[in-house]
Amino acid sequence: MEPREVKPKTYDSEKITINLGLIDLGQIDLLVNEGFYSNRTDLIRTAIRNQLNTHADVVKQTVARRSLVLGMHHYSKADLEVALAAGERLQIQVLGMASIASDVPAELALATIESIFVLGTLHASAAVKTALAARIL
Q1: Any domain includes 110
Q2: pLDDT level of residue 4 (50, 70, 90 thresholds)
Q3: SUPFAM superfamilies recorded for this chain (predicted)?
């Protein structure tokens, strides 16, 4: 049997939890019952998208100013080995999702990653996250 490359899971959403007052929740349920939205999540997702659209220019300017990578960025073991061989230290700055392959040893991550700043979510093994804890901003 030939070895296969393990591809990272792709995530298009992340679960969050919010607390709402009873009156707000009741109003949401009323709008759902009246057919304006298919469910609570639909209303909340729509409200968040509307707010993000309102602030889209600020987001674009901040992404450019901070030199953030927008979207999902994956760092494989090979990527980090190339950086190590070149004597490079990575400053990972992502708005969205950054992932470090599950086969990356903590020692390699420590040798190649100078800092991590993620607005969104970071996927990495527990060992890598623990090793880089002081470098995760």
Answers
A1: yes
A2: very low
A3: Ribbon-helix-helix
- For residue 14, being part of any structural domain is answered with no
Query: Do 127 and 61 belong together in one domain?
Result: yes
27 CB neighbour count, 10 Å cutoff: 13
Q: Which pLDDT belongs to residue 100?
A: 96
Tell me what pLDDT residue 11 has.
Answer: 60
Calculate the alpha carbon distances from 118 to 20, 21, 85, 114 in Å. 27, 30, 25, 14
Is the pLDDT at 132 greater than 70? The verdict is yes
Of 83, 88, 125, 85, the C-alpha closest to 106 is 125
Residue with tokens 């999702």: 97
In this structure, the answer to whether residues 33 and 69 fall within a common structural domain is no
Same domain, yes or no, for 100 and 45?
Answer: no
Instruction: Estimate the share of the chain in helix, then strand, then coil, as percent rounded to the nearest 5.
Output: 45, 20, 30
Assess whether 43 and 89 both reside in one domain. no
Calculate Rg over the CA atoms of the chain.
Answer: 20
Same domain membership, residue 98 and residue 45: no
